[in-house]
Amino acid sequence: MSGSVLTKSAGALYASRLARVRQSMKSQSIDAALLSVGHDLPYLTGYYAMPLERLTMLVVTHDAVAALIVPRLEAPRVTPFDDVFKVVPWGETENPVEIVAKQLGGAKRIAIGDQMWARFLVELMGFVSGVNFVRAVDVVGSMRMAKDVDEIAALQAAGAAADRVATQLQAGEIKLVGRTEAQVSADISARLIAEGHDVVNFAIVAAGENAASPHHHAGSRVIKHDEIVLCDFGGTMNGYCSDITRCVFIGEPSRKITSAYSVLHAAQAAGVAAGVVGATCESVDAAARKVIDDAGFGDFFIHRTGHGIGMEAHEEPYMVSGNKLLIAAGHAFSVEPGIYLPGKWGMRLEDIVVATDAGPLSMNNVDHSLAILN
Ligand code: ZN
Ligand code: ZN
Ligand code: ZN
């Protein structure tokens, strides 16, 4: 029965991750970790909390078995791993925060997941005293950043699926001229699903002057001839995310655009090349930015060079000036410099890269040039 084998190995995986969380808690004198909505909880248990008003929370302490406190009506969705955590269902008339407080066993230093509703933390503060709260990213973040082989394989599969859609875009298979950005965005989204994604996280389509806004929301703007179209899209496949940006030009690009694009292309390659084990995150940003600065476009590169990616589309580590964190094997992140001329055009080029001991490994392998369509 392959299903039970999988379940058993998943249980072992979660048990080993929880053991590492406890080690990290111990080394930082953290008595308890509370993980709720967000991705730390499924990373440690396989269970995704519904982002609703009812409390779901994993309570991790040193001596007791971890407790997953869930609304009784959602308990059937939990896949139990008896060696990893116990399930504590709560009924509609109970106060779940009080139940959490009872599991804490007098903890004085408590790590809180970033995405827990503020409401629950505020209510919890009424049940405990003399407690010092810290961020759970301090105990789970470094583990989540360093992807294991299975996680890298999942990122690769998601990247390959996004690549197939990007290839369709570059081949002119996705009709652009005469359609609105929103229509093209819906088309790209459908193709991401058709290529194997479970959900689409975003499909930015920005034409002409709209491409100068990095997170432009695809709207009613009709795409025309003789303009650049920036497409940045990604989704989640088997729990891991893809994220890719490619630009196409419909017609004959001006020399200004082709020369700016060659700067962008070189900047992106420099950023990827800098993403080696032992380098700082900020050096990836600096490497890409230097190429753009040197070409005189520095004022038009208005965001950091990249973000980490994994179970979340944006997570640590961030490739940004000031981030002295050292890149380690398994760190997965985007390298996505851009050049944005307000009111005129914009361009960005993005791949996901995983740092390995053998050098940067790209999850995206689609042609990097500005595809010219007619
Ligand atoms: Zn973004
Ligand atoms: Zn992107
Ligand atoms: Zn990105």
CATH topology title of the largest domain: Creatine Amidinohydrolase
Q: Give the bound compounds.
A: zinc ion
Give me the side-by-side strand order of the main sheet: 4-3-2-1-5-6
| Rg measurement, Å | 23 Å
Catalogue the unreliable spans: 1-5
Give me the strand/helix succession.
HEHEEEHEHEHHHEEEEHHEEEEEEEE
Helix content: 25-40%
The total number of structural domains is 2
**Largest sheet descriptor:** 6 strands, mixed
Overall average pLDDT:
95
CATH class of the largest domain: Alpha Beta
Q: How many H/I helical runs?
A: 9
CATH superfamily of the largest domain: Creatinase/methionine aminopeptidase superfamily
By helix and strand content, what is the structural category? alpha+beta
Topology, number of strands: 18
Large-scale geometry: elongated
Q: Please indicate the percent range of residues in DSSP E strands (runs of 2 or more).
A: 15-25%
Quaternary state of this entry equals single chain
Which second-level CATH architecture of the largest domain applies?
Alpha-Beta Complex
Sum this structure up briefly.
With 374 residues, the chain is an alpha+beta fold. It is built from nine helices and 18 strands. It has a six-stranded mixed sheet, with helices on both faces.
Describe this structure in words.
- With 374 residues, the chain is α+β, with helices and mostly antiparallel strands.
- The chain folds into 2 domains: 3-142, Creatinase/prolidase N-terminal domain (Creatine Amidinohydrolase, Chain A, domain 1); 146-373, Creatine Amidinohydrolase (Alpha-Beta Complex).
- It has 9 helices and 18 strands.
- The protein has helices spanning 2-27, 40-45, 96-103, 118-125, 137-145, 149-170, 181-194, 255-274, 281-294, and strands spanning 32-35, 57-61, 66-71, 85-90, 109-112, 132-135, 199-207, 227-237, 240-241, 244-250, 306-308, 315-319, 332-335, 338-341, 345-348, 351-356, 359-362, 371-373.
- The chain has a 6-stranded mixed beta sheet, sandwiched between helices.
- Strand 5 (109-112), helix 4 (118-125) and strand 6 form a beta-alpha-beta unit.
- Helix 1 packs across helix 5.
- The protein is elongated.
- One zinc ion (ZN) is lined by residues 232, 234, 243, 245, 336, 350.
